[in-house]
Fold this sequence. Notes:
With 196 residues, the chain is an alpha+beta fold. The protein has helices spanning 12-21, 49-55, 66-75, 77-84, 170-178, and strands at 23-27, 33-41, 91-96, 116-119, 129-135, 142-152, 163-164, 184-187. The model has no long low-confidence stretch (mean pLDDT 89).
Amino acid sequence: MPGKTLLYVDDAVELFFLQVQGSGRVQLADGSMVRLNYADQNGHPYQSIGKVLIERGELKLEEASMQGIQAWARANPARLEGLLNANPSYVFFREVPNSNDGPIGALGVPLTAERSIAIDPRSIALGSPVFLATTRPNSAQPMNRLVMAQDTGGAIKGAVRADFFWGFGKEAGEQAGRMKQSGRMWVLLPAELAPK
């Protein structure tokens, strides 16, 4: 695949999670930020390294969050490369102008924190309003709201899964890393488009 090297990073785990997210910001040594968005993928299917760690007995299901995987990686640096190689998928990025906007989603517009979701477009049409009823991560606190299907993701398969965009920053990253909630979704359609 033709392209140019954008950056070198010093943390393979953070690079992995940047690829899972599909976009993000990289802080350079001088403190400046570079904003990256999804450009392409190598065509190989995504393999969850959290699932690999569970199958190997290294983590329990409830430990296989972003934070749990990061902790495992820090405790097992000599084994990290082998784990990361269990996922053949690789995401390529493009540099985009720095701004406070969210990442550019599949519709070509910035995602909005806590109002945008990524879906499987074979099941839910991009641009659809969706009512989401779930709970906050690691909590019974209800989270019911209208969101927009504005992005897609390689690991999102079928109508029963969506990825909620928490936003940018440490707190948003913490929430995203813990979000594994069950929930319900209703796609809102004009009456004439609703299935009969």
